[in-house]
Amino acid sequence: MAKLSQEDLLAQFEELTLIELSEFVKAFEEKFDVTAAAPAAVAVAGGAAAPAEAEAEQDEFDVILTGAGEKKIQVIKVVRELTSLGLKEAKDLVDGTPKPVLEKVAKDAAEKAAEALKGAGASVEVK
Question: Does pTM top 0.85 for this prediction?
Fold first, then answer.
């Protein structure tokens, strides 16, 4: 029997019905003592590792104001400096804690904002 190329084999499989193809896969597994499901399990395991790596390399952070502290006016001033909010909006943000002050910013910008807010007497969380 002549050796068939991959394209020839695929052309032959295209002509099979799903039932015939399923029977072929079972016969192939029995003949060569393999399981067709094994590569799928490896693909799932490999896919699960990718999100874990993405989470480890976080590049966007949120600065969340969790409390204004005793110097509320100073905190409002810092919030206005960090954002483009007006006086009323900044006051509402500080009054409605916990609220995000900055969202999806770089790590260094988030750290600088957190330090400024902490310096004004606020309690801050960076996520």
Answer: no
